[in-house]
Amino acid sequence: MTDTSILIIVTAALSSGFLGSPHCLGMCGGIVTAFGLSMQTLSPARQRLLVLMYHLGRLLSYSTLGLLAAALGKTVLLGGTPESFPWTALGVVLILIGLGMLGVGLFSPLERLGAMVWRSFAPIRQKLFPLMTVPRALAAGLLWGLLPCGLVYGALLLAATSPTVSGGALAMFAFGLGTLPMLLLTAVFAQRMHTFLSRWHFRSINGVLLILAGVWLLSPLVLHGTNHHGQHSHNHAMQQKTGSDQTLPHHMNDSTHESMDKSMDPTMDMPEDHRLHTGMPQDSTHH
């Protein structure tokens, strides 16, 4: 399932980040404003560099969290389970994220827990301002990735279903990329994009599509096909093993075959006159 599932996970994470970015504008807009105010005295080129750095830090933070989530999911959730279970887990997660994008507060308990962690970093955040240097901007972005957010937690659940840890990191990186356009645009254009996405209910449409994708992955047809493929691979491996056991090794030489022939014919070592007396045929080499 590796390539197909990673493609599904990354695509779902990217779309969740982009179509859920109006929510990001509401939660992260204050942070973006604070960052901008702290850089007002710098040149435009310097400001662009620092903006790039703290967004890079945020993407690195998301990717690290995705790697950890995938490692946890690989060892705890998916280890030692039937072959169909990863598909089942991915289907359930897609449905949960879809419900979250439709407004169901499934991740509210996680957000409250994350808020406690976020408040514990307040002293560190205060020391980073103003963002005058690249290291400070990068560190601020790394901390920003820990901001409590239901969209982030949904994407982390996606990453946890990845069959590889690199796939989990890639999924969270894609999620972060999806949120970039809304956060990089100026206030005027960001508000226009917010209005456009809200007017056409793109977030709700994406939620419905994710739910349908999850239901499809949970359908008996898909799960049966996965189990059938796994059984076929197991049977094929057993057939190969049985066939190899019935084949003589290639390293057996002629003397080995001759000794086997003698062991199967007890008259091979008898004298010729005794063979004639017993009525046994003579060896053609004596004629």
Structure report:
This protein is mostly helical. 77% of the residues lie in helices and 0% in strands.
Number of strand segments: 0
Net shape: globular
Order of helices and strands: HHHHHHHHHHHHHH
Quaternary structure type: single chain
Number of helices: 14
Proportion of residues in helical segments? over 70%
Q: Characterize the main sheet.
A: none
Going by helix content, strand content and strand pairing, the class is mainly alpha
Mean pLDDT rating: 75
Note poorly predicted spans.
228-234, 243-252, 276-281, 283-287
Q: Over all CA atoms, what is the radius of gyration?
A: 33 Å
How many domains in all? 2
Q: For the terminal residues, how far apart are their CA atoms?
A: 69 Å
Throw out a few tags for this protein.
14 helices, 0% strand, globular
